[in-house]
Amino acid sequence: xxxxxxxxxxxxxxxxxxxxxxxxxxxxxxxxxxxxxxxxxxxxxxxxxxxxxxxxxxxxxxxxxxxxxxxxxxxxxxxxxxxxxxxxxxxxxxxxxxxxxxxxxxxxxxxxxxxxxxxxxxxxxxxxxxxxxxxxxxxxxxxxxxxxxxxxxxxxxxxxxxxxxxxxxxxxxxxxxxxxxxxxxxxxxxxxxxxxxxxxxxxxxxxxxxxxxxxxxxxxxxxxxxxxxxxxxxxxxxxxxxxxxxxxxxxxxxxxxxxxxxxxxxxxxxxxxxxxxxxxxxxxxxxxxxxxxxxxxxxxxxxxxxxxxxxxxxxxxxxxxxxxxxxxxxxxxxxxxxxxxxxxxxxxxxxxxxxxxxxxxxxxxxxxxxxxxxxxxxxxxxxxxxxxxxxxxxxxxxxxxxxxxxxxxxxxxxxxxxxxxxxxxxxxxxxxxxxxxxxxxxxxxxxxxxxxxxxxxxxxxxxxxxxxxxxxxxxxx
Length: 477
Hints:
Elements: E1 5-18, E2 25-26, H1 34-37, E3 56-71, E4 76-93, E5 103-104, E6 107-123, E7 127-148, E8 153-176, E9 180-201, E10 204-229, E11 232-243, E12 260-273, E13 278-290, E14 293-296, E15 307-310, E16 313-325, E17 331-344, E18 372-380, E19 382-384, E20 387-398, E21 401-402, E22 412-413, E23 416-427, E24 432-439, E25 447-453, E26 458-463, E27 468-475
Antiparallel strand pairs: 1-3, 2-26, 3-4, 4-5, 4-6, 5-7, 6-7, 7-8, 8-9, 9-10, 10-11, 11-12, 12-13, 13-16, 14-15, 16-17, 17-18, 18-20, 19-20, 20-23, 21-22, 23-24, 24-27, 25-26
């Protein structure tokens, strides 16, 4: 094409066959596990399991994008056309014992097409603007099959989901008084979803329905910035976020759950000091959710999966600070700290493990929300002729969390820290880089998820990655 047009083709593929994060360990107390009560063996050792069915994670993800950039005299136009598909096959021994007691075999196939047109430009060197439209179509097929041979119980659900999403957005930034800039924008979002659902129990059709719904929203965004000098930026922002409603696709629930919206308020600053050798950014924020969507296990969840419920109100308040230090050439030190306070404003949900308990969960913490998170890393680059050698050490800390809105102690994960190390060997002249890494050097035992379902699977812990060594190779051409 001509000199004002650029076309970029890109594609990617990723495949995985493993048992990553799909090996549940039955943990105490064991009274809630019927498989253990029936004689199922739970071997000693935190990471030792004894399954009658081998866990499997078979995943394939591929996609492609065509991006066209064209410069007109008054504005730039960008077109992004994309396609993505994914296939997922999982097998999981849910009871975590050597008995053929409870198994699950989820399957998912997704195809997504999207198109975005975006125009941007300047006016009188004081106003920058951007506007565009976006469309997405997704077709998904899901199936979940839970088997309990001893009952017998064989429950299989199938869902065909069609998602259509459309958006129009525009934003402009105006500079005034030399040091200030004000940004105002808005996005109109429309989404439609259809769920074609069927459930078979022991081979007999027990439920089928087709339902669809649509939602729309206008989300404004406002930002005020102050730049007293090129090294300092202070800002305040207020934005509405929108998450469309949808359907629970693994449990029989014809009615959709409602959209989730929030007002996000943030005040922050970014600055560089000491000849740019110290870089600091920090912010305080407050998120006010309305109809927040939460995963909740209820007595109606007979097939061992949570369903999405709207929890009325919820708030998140916190602050974060991120710093980078360059005390000497080739040496970098990074420190990040985040503090959170979360609270569910209104939610009534019956805990199937304690159905007689008060169902009012208002005031509880949000799931997976640590009060304190900390991350630090240090690296130094050595240069030898055309080779660069960069050792790096990282440490991550997270305070305790709950995996359940019920704040059940059996679904609590205590505070823990993870230590990682990495060695990069780079040869820039030939575009090659080798990376040797060690993750979780101290072999810390921590859970990526905890589930309590008394009378079905009991208490399960899905342990995070143990001490792990590996290497990567990257070639640029």
